[in-house]
Design a protein that fits this description.
Elements: H1 2-114, E1 118-122, H2 131-151, E2 156-169, E3 172-183, E4 193-201, E5 206-213
Antiparallel strand pairs: 1-2, 2-3, 3-4, 4-5
């Protein structure tokens, strides 16, 4: 009887121990399950954060790309505008040159027609730009500027011969000059000034019969 009781107690103890182990195992499984769910949630949260970050980076990249496209478009617009401006300036310069040439040719024609003279020197012409003739005309221009300097306080020196025509008369010849001259340092503001002079030469005397500023000449330089 006692032995049976002991056996029963032993069996109950084993069953209790087995139950405790089973409960402990279930508890461990629950904890592992809970931990797995937590890890899963954490992993999902991390994945969502990475997706959100990636989306933000994509948005940022798209914004940068759009900004670059706008900047490129703006630069191209500026470039086209600049090229158009350069073309317009070039066209204007070419038109101005044509006008200057037309005016210059008109002045030469007027000089030759009005004074019944022949063209003997033209700075811009290869046919009428003889160095020896230029030196001779510079001497006449110097005579003219010397006369001009005596009339007023500004002192000029001859710079360049531009156009000269010559008319033969009974007592010699008359040279009609267009030339530039530089004012002295005190009165020099806008570079060279422009002059017109008439030189009457004969067998015994060469004199300046006219010299003054040439305002018509301003438009062809």
């Amino acid at each position: 009887m006692k032995k049976l009781e002991e056996e029963q107690n032993k069996l109950e103890s084993m069953m209790k121990l087995e139950e405790e182990k089973k409960l402990e195992s279930l508890k461990k499984l629950d904890e592992e399950k809970k931990l797995g769910e937590e890890k899963k949630l954490e992993s999902m949260k991390k994945l969502e954060e990475e997706e959100k970050k990636l989306e933000e980076e994509n948005t940022k990249l798209e914004s940068m790309k759009k900004l670059e496209e706008e900047e490129t478009k703006l630069e191209e617009g500026k470039k086209l505008k600049s090229m158009k401006k350069l073309e317009e300036e070039k066209e204007f310069e070419e038109m101005l040159k044509r006008v200057q040439v037309d005016i210059r040719n008109s002045i030469i024609r007027d000089f030759c027609f009005c004074y019944d003279a022949k063209l003997t020197y033209d700075r811009d012409s290869t046919d009428f730009c003889n160095p020896e003739e230029m030196l001779r005309l510079k001497g006449y221009a110097q005579m003219a500027i010397d006369v001009f300097n005596k009339r007023q306080p500004i002192q000029y020196s001859v710079d360049e011969i531009d156009i000269a025509t010559t008319r033969i008369v009974d007592d010699g010849f008359i040279v009609f000059l267009l030339f530039t001259a530089m004012a002295d340092a005190v009165h020099q503001f806008n570079g060279a000034d422009f002059f017109r002079a008439d030189i009457h030469g004969g067998t015994q005397l060469t004199e300046v019969t006219y010299v003054d500023y040439s305002f018509l000449y301003d438009c062809i330089v």
